């Protein structure tokens, strides 16, 4: 098996995370954890420090063979939190002058898009994941060839590549222009759509609910688990389902130790056929810079998932009680789910949540710094209380779905 991809440092501020992975090296680690005897030729770019790190791992695992292209500095991805677009150091445009192309040829090839290089591959079975939210490349634009090409692309990348947000038009492009053997469109918290031919209706790959959600690297894991399964004889559909389960397990634990078993009965699947049209009410104090920053981050994260959000901070603002309270209550009445920011136990936020509960509405709350006694009434009335920001946002989205 050939894996081509990036090896990057990943640093997250909250929750704390500092590791060396990137799409390619995460895939290597995952595959070797699932199947330690799997022979892997790994093609990547690295500076001196990361080259030493990779060679150290190679010496620990006889199944791993390295092909490293030297670069001046390996990229670092810095996240404020997992749902925030990372800041990349050095800037991606600084790699354009390097003109590094990775060449590889083999039977089974998993290839991810890279910041610091392009690729030219030939393979029998090839799985391609563009891995670029800003400038995704098609497989054929690199001059690469595959007898059976499966492209795994998220919806945002697909829209940029095809200049269309119509799923049918996106499907037609990849089968006609890219000659795909199959196409998987990842739809974020909705799951994914699998097309095995241009004439097929999509097979819905469900999302699987987890206690925690760690999004960083989840797409890498999906593509790697899918590729490994398909390369080893599983059907495309079964490979996709197994990959979705494995991804859920990774998101729940942040490691690869329990991904080998993809028993579909272990997790609850959730069907969300389209972006929910219901409204989320964003409750939280906004009197200080830190409070406004957090409210705005929650607003961005919820909107980024396509949700309709009513936010007193964004939609009403500061003002006298006679000016703002009535508007806030209308927003509450028109909302289906309340997302509350509870640290500090702001009286207005607690009132909004209590009002929502009295109306039979669902409540998801992000709270890190309050004791159990203070939250007893909220817990006892069925509110979902989460200490992790990304998990709270995802569970808000999932609250619109059905098992």
Overview of this protein structure:
With 403 residues, this protein is α/β, with parallel strands linked by helices. The model has no long low-confidence stretch (mean pLDDT 94). Helix 5 packs antiparallel against helix 6. It contains twelve helices and 20 strands. A nine-stranded mixed beta sheet has the order 5-4-1-8-9-10-11-12-13, with helices on both faces. It has helices spanning 22-34, 48-60, 155-162, 167-176, 218-231, 236-253, 289-304, 312-316, 321-333, 347-358, 376-380, 389-398, and strands at residues 2-4, 8-12, 17-21, 40-46, 64-70, 76-79, 87-89, 101-112, 118-129, 145-154, 182-186, 192-195, 203-205, 207-208, 269-270, 279-283, 308-310, 337-341, 362-366, 384-386. The two termini are 36 Å apart. The chain folds into two domains: 2-270, UDP-N-acetylmuramoyl-L-alanine:D-glutamate ligase (3-Layer(aba) Sandwich); 279-398, Rossmann fold, CATH 3.40.50. The longest helix is centred in the middle third of the chain and has 18 residues, at 236-253.
Supply the key terms.
single chain, 403 residues, alpha/beta, Rossmann fold, nine-stranded mixed beta sheet
The coarse overall form would be globular
Oligomer: single chain
**SS elements, strand count:** 20
Helix proportion of residues, in percent?
25-40%
List the helices and strands and how they pair.
Blueprint (H helix, E strand, L loop, with lengths): L1 E3 L3 E5 L4 E5 H13 L5 E7 L1 H13 L3 E7 L5 E4 L7 E3 L11 E12 L5 E12 L15 E10 H8 L4 H10 L5 E5 L5 E4 L7 E3 L1 E2 L9 H14 L4 H18 L15 E2 L8 E5 L5 H16 L3 E3 L1 H5 L4 H13 L3 E5 L5 H12 L3 E5 L9 H5 L3 E3 L2 H10 L5
Parallel strand pairs: 1-4, 1-8, 2-6, 4-5, 8-9, 9-10, 10-11, 16-17, 16-18, 18-19, 19-20
Antiparallel strand pairs: 2-3, 6-7, 11-12, 12-13, 14-15
């Amino acid at each position: 098996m050939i894996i081509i991809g990036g090896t990057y440092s990943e640093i997250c501020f909250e929750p704390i995370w500092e590791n060396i992975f990137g799409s390619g090296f995460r895939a290597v680690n995952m595959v070797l954890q699932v199947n330690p005897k799997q022979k892997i030729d790994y093609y990547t770019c690295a500076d001196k420090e990361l080259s030493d790190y990779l060679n150290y791992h190679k010496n620990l695992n006889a199944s791993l063979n390295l092909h490293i292209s030297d670069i001046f500095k390996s990229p670092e991805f810095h996240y404020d939190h997992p749902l925030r677009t990372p800041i990349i150091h050095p800037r991606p445009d600084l790699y354009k002058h390097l003109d590094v192309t990775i060449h590889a040829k083999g039977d089974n090839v998993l290839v991810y898009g890279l910041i610091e290089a392009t690729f030219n591959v030939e393979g029998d079975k090839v799985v391609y994941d563009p891995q670029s939210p800003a400038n995704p490349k098609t497989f054929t634009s690199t001059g690469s060839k595959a007898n059976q090409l499966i492209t795994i692309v998220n919806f945002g990348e697909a829209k940029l590549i095809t200049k269309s947000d119509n799923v049918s038009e996106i499907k037609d492009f990849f089968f006609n222009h890219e000659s795909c053997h199959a196409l998987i469109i990842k739809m974020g918290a909705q799951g994914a759509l699998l097309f095995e031919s241009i004439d097929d209706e999509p097979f819905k790959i469900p999302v699987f609910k987890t206690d925690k959600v760690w999004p960083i690297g989840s797409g890498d894991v999906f593509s790697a688990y899918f590729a490994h399964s398909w390369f080893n004889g599983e059907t495309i559909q079964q490979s996709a389902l197994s990959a979705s389960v494995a991804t859920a397990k990774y998101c729940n634990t942040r490691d690869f130790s329990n991904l080998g078993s993809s028993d579909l009965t272990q997790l609850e699947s959730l069907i969300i056929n389209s972006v929910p049209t219901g409204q989320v009410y964003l409750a939280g104090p906004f009197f200080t810079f830190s409070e406004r920053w957090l409210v705005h981050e929650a607003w961005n994260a919820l909107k980024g998932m396509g949700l309709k959000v009513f936010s007193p901070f964004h939609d009403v603002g500061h003002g006298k009680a006679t000016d703002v309270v009535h508007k806030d209550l209308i927003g509450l009445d028109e909302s289906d789910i309340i997302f509350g920011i509870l640290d500090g136990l702001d009286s207005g936020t607690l009132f909004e949540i209590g009002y929502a509960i009295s109306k039979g509405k669902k409540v998801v709350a992000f709270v890190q710094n309050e004791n159990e006694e203070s939250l007893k009434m909220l817990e006892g009335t069925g509110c979902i209380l989460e200490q992790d920001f990304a998990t709270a946002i995802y569970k808000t989205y999932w609250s619109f779905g059905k098992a």
